[in-house]
């Protein structure tokens, strides 16, 4: 019964039925957006398109893309498809430059959102018996409220701890016997480090599941978190412009995040040419919302680089899976002509014994070339080892980076605890070219 309340019945739908549902919802969304949002109407008119031109899902490709720039130009409420009096919640993107983007939800949207997040939390193993500690910051960021409402929808007990205050966070985890942890993967590492320092063995806690999202993280980092916190760590993805968390989440098979296709239509495009790419290709994820009222997004360019996997999943869900994202195209570094994502370097570092999970990338320009320095914290043992051993270690790390990524980097060892720790999303790149 509960499953039906959350609309989870869509998750195992035959794909032909899903396509029919998507088309009906898409047509209704396009009609509302065209009628109520000047920006969409103008874009459609420029191309000579009306919503009735979309008669099949393939027709989606005729439609114009929406970008962050469109949201900026229509700041704050220009993209809303309902009057403000119907909006019950306002959130904002976590962008650090320029004006933030503003997103709104009707009462119905809040219910849709809670159901979607409840679905990935359930897929990850959360039940009404869980005690869910939310360590995302409460505020304009969508992370905390998104998971909070969903955990309540499931009937779990929610601890709205918010971010930071790491020692208190750990004390509450112990005393209130939290079983599920919600935060960014980098904060999970910060928590593990602090527990180690405080002499607390995570095995003595009740924690069993981690629901991590909001930033890219490698499989190597997942293994590290799972081992150190003794939990099952799952990934979930979303972005405020589209809904917040609740776009996609992993099931317990952990082989990609199921995108909730009854609410979003995903496409993969080449970020340079904007051409649609065939199934399985790596490219930029484009999302269209099909059941949101206040803030419909048509072909929104997420800038996130991933690929879609349509092969059947052992869990029985028929919804497509997106691979862990490599990061945003804006975060991609081009070093000596080679495209490098910080998450690829993370994968290499985490596989090396003696590297702590704390690193920083410094990009600079020497003459006409971009150069990369990888700063890594090392275990106390290696740091205090004699110079010869340190040198051999550095050479080994540099070789691994070069052979995996095809580009050279200078590796520098830094003192234990010298790289800033993260309470929310990690910021690991110092780009001196932009200073
Ligand atoms: O980070 C929404 C969210 C909150 C998702 C909590 C999951 C959990 P924004 O602040 O708008 O919204 O940032 C969205 O963060 O475009 C991605 O680049 C990145 N991102 C989010 N989740 C993941 C993930 C929230 N699981 C931007 N893996 C997105 C990789 C992610 N990147």
UniProtKB/TrEMBL annotation:
Molecular function in Gene Ontology: ligase activity
Coiled-coil intervals, chain numbering: 16-43
Top EC group: ligase
InterPro entries assigned: Adenylate-forming_Reductase, AMP-bd_C_sf, AMP-dep_Lig_C, AMP-dep_synth/lig_dom, ANL_N_sf, PA_CoA_ligase
Location of the AMP-dependent ligase C-terminal domain: 337-433
Annotated pathway: Aromatic compound metabolism; phenylacetate degradation
Physiological role: Catalyzes the activation of phenylacetic acid (PA) to phenylacetyl-CoA (PA-CoA).
Family, as annotated: Belongs to the phenylacetyl-CoA ligase family.
PANTHER family: PHENYLACETATE-COENZYME A LIGASE
Name the record gives this protein: Phenylacetate-coenzyme A ligase
Organism per entry: Geomobilimonas luticola
Source taxonomy: Bacteria, Pseudomonadati, Thermodesulfobacteriota, Desulfuromonadia, Geobacterales
